[in-house]
Write a structure and sequence with these properties.
The protein is mostly helical. The chain contains three helices and no strands.
Length: 94
């Protein structure tokens, strides 16, 4: 597997967008740092793509693959919700 600088930058940008969209669809305030949102977004982008491919939805298109994007945002929202609960518990226990 070969990584390029642009590939890494693209993963960070897409991860940030997916993470922020995942945060946006959740009600209320999520007291987690932005770096954690980006990490969750990057993981959600990869995991969402794997899920979409397993379900047969991730196909090469000439535009935006909306179903894959929706799956990624749902995965990001779940990740943000889990991180919010874990991060909130850590802050309270101090």
């Amino acid at each position: 597997m070969e990584f390029s600088v642009w590939g890494i930058i693209t993963a960070i940008v897409v991860g940030a967008i997916i993470g922020l969209l995942g945060r946006f669809v959740l009600p209320g305030r999520q007291p987690i740092p932005i770096w954690l949102t980006i990490v969750i977004g990057i993981a959600a982008a990869f995991l969402g793509t794997l899920i979409a491919r397993a379900l047969g939805f991730a196909t090469e298109t000439s535009g935006i693959d909306w179903i894959e994007l929706i799956i990624q945002v749902i995965v990001a929202a779940i990740g943000v919700a889990i991180a919010t609960n874990l991060y909130g518990r850590r802050s309270v226990s101090r």
